[in-house]
Amino acid sequence: NQTWVLRQRPVGDIKEGDLDLVETPLEPLKDGEVRAKTVYLSLDPTNRIWMSDVDAYLPPVGIGDAMRGGGLAVVVESKHDGFQQGDVVNTGLGTWTMYPTLQGEGLAKLPILPGVPLTAYMGPLGATGMTAYFGLMDIGKPQAGETVVVSAAAGAVGSMVGQIAKIQGCRAVGIAGSDDKCKWLTETAGFDAAINYKTEDVGAALDKHCPDGIDVNFENVGGQIMDEVIARLNDFSRMPLCGLISTYNATDPVPGPYNFSNLLMRRTLMKGFIVIDYFPRFPEGIQQMAQWLMEGKLKFETDVVKGFENAPSSLSRLFEGKNLGKLVVECSPP
Ligand code: NDP
């Protein structure tokens, strides 16, 4: 078996040598266990958080421990009555390992829906889809006619947020890092407007595309982009604080937001959230997202990198903005 193990804590960007690929023999299965072969590994910004020794929502991965991460795997051997060879399972908060040994008890078997590719379970029907769904619906509480702004809009979470906002009858404005991404947002995903933060004046573009101000800011990025949005929030606006990707590789404390006082003046509700808190409600979220997906109301993209050995080096795609949609590593043929 092959497993990616954390060798040292990265400083700034992840570098070669921060993780090691380790070979270990597979132990015989015990009663109640299931062995699976990884098909897709999910690469997420939070992988980077887990590598740092910071006070986060979960303890950091220990030095010498298997890297934490989720994915989809196909059962190759089972000593649990509920699973048989060929079943596809969600490894949840698993590890970056080629042949995970999983407890059958509580293991999630994927409901295979007609016409829905496996990659959908990594995106709209997976953890990032649930992040978008619950963050927007539960905290953002979008009302028809309101304006919803989302940053990292062409990524896994952001692309879903804008589309759900549209389904709710809102104006959806996305902020992303390339013209191609902006084109995808407006021409394929149905956003009303998209702003390329690398080439445009974000504040001026927000003024142009959000003539009635901003009612919901779904925050994925932090830093200067967040500041520009905060400055344009409406009275009683909501701000699901989902992520701050612009700060995850920072080696020094990140200053700001400078427009913080506007949260007071506008009586904004800001709430940080972590999707795992919504785990008990996943069936509800998956059912709704699956319905929208089957009705053709959600478009999604998957950025597929091939080869388990490429997992650590591919994580930088998220920080360099190379991915459109959900970044995954294909470890074996789906
Ligand atoms: P994405 O698929 O959105 O990939 C990350 C994107 O962020 C990149 O494609 C890039 O797009 C953008 N980005 C990277 N660095 C910067 C930067 N310095 N400034 C502006 N944009 C940047 O990842 P996810 O959808 O998985 O995650 C999006 C956010 O949601 C992250 O902050 C993540 O931590 C958070 N998250 C939170 C969860 C929770 O439970 N709270 C669960 C899942 C995700 P671009 O080309 O536009 O720059």
UniProtKB/TrEMBL annotation:
SMART domains to which the protein is assigned, alphabetical: PKS_ER
Record keywords: Oxidoreductase
Domain Enoyl reductase (ER), first and last residues per copy: 17-329
One Gene Ontology molecular-function label: oxidoreductase activity, acting on the CH-CH group of donors, NAD or NADP as acceptor
Source organism superkingdom: Bacteria
Pfam families associated with the record: ADH_N_2 (PF16884), ADH_zinc_N (PF00107)
PANTHER family, A to Z: PROSTAGLANDIN REDUCTASE, PROSTAGLANDIN REDUCTASE 1
Protein name in UniProt: L4BD family NADP-dependent oxidoreductase
Source species of the chain: Hyphomonas adhaerens MHS-3
